[in-house]
Amino acid sequence: MPKTEIKNRSPKTWVQLTINAPASHADLIAAFLASVPVDGVEQTAPPPEADAPAREDINCYLSPGPDFETRSAEIKEFIQRFNNLLSEAEQISCHYSEVIEEDWNAGWKEHFKPFRLSERLVIKPTWVDFTARPADLVIEMDPGMAFGTGLHATTRLTVRMIEKLFSGRKPPATVLDVGCGTGIIGMSSVLFGAGKVIGVDNDPDAREAARANIAHNGLLSCTVIDDDLKDVSGEYNLIAANITCDILTMLVPDLVRCLSPDGDLILSGILAGDQSEAMEENLNSRGLILVELCRDDEWVGMRFQRPL
Q1: What pLDDT shows up at residue 146?
Q2: Are 230 and 262 in contact (CB under 8 A)?
Q3: Which of 110, 136, 163, 222 is disulfide-compatible with 186, CB 3.0–4.6 A?
Q4: Where are the alpha helices (DSSP H) in 42-152?
């Protein structure tokens, strides 16, 4: 998923940048912040004003380390450029504040509730009771060790496309989860019936969080390795990559290389329109065709195959 949810780190005090923006642009802004990268992002919807377009608060967390000024300047420039494209009524506002780590974790526990990520899959915090339906599959998460909780639209798209794919045929023997984050997509694949899942991520904190979540849920046929995608060998029946579009574009050659001749490639983190059209053209030029496109707000999930 683009990584747009909370990511814990060691400093006790954090700098919080709250950005208020039109709801229609909130996901795009959150995805940019994740690419900076910041140390965490969460989106909340303040009470709507009468007769006013919907807006969201995007809370961005930064550790006050040596690169704080550089990252802050990059965010400031992005906001200025974004505002140049908006009307006066749509303008983005932002302000800084300090957050104590203990308060942050308490806030997550208050707001993180069980939710249904797909028709059968439920994500629940470890400290909350949940009565599952007979067919439900449940993944337990703890924000104290999590990089993301699956709330983002791109994660929903990916998991729902995988669930649909698996329900229509025999689940694939091998799955490669690229940019695995907390491991939600890989763990979901195991629960839906995949034989073996390999997760890769270039962030060591993400790999650590994924391994902890996999062990906690007892899904040991899902493994996270330290290799970059370029070093991964073999072919996989399903490859899922939920990352920002610019990164996906760079990874396309290796994604295609690792895909088995009869495999499926599911990509998410792509905006509808220019990005999805460019991605389809890119994959077409490498011998793959688009066989399914799903949409959630401005985001799309795309499934590709090699033609028979």
Answers
A1: 39
A2: no
A3: 222
A4: 68-83, 101-111
The Cα–Cα gap between 26 and 97 comes to 20
Mean pLDDT of 48-71: 79
Q: Which residue has the tokens 């942050």?
A: 104
| SS3 call for 39 | coil
Number of domains present in the structure of the chain:
2
Residues 58 and 183 in one domain: no
User: What are residue 80's phi and psi, to 5 degrees?
Assistant: -65, -45
Which position has the higher pLDDT, 163 or 144?
163
CA–CA separation, 152 and 174 (whole Å): 25
Domain that includes residue 194, residue range? 153-305
Rg (CA), the chain: 19
- Mean pLDDT over residues 237-246, rounded? 92
- pLDDT of amino acid 265: 98
In a domain, 47, yes or no: yes
Instruction: Give SS3 for 132.
Output: coil
Domain boundary among 59, 76, 110: 110
User: 97 by DSSP, 3-state: which?
Assistant: strand
Looking at the fold, whether 88 and 175 belong to one and the same domain comes out as no
Residue count of the chain, please give it. Answer: 308
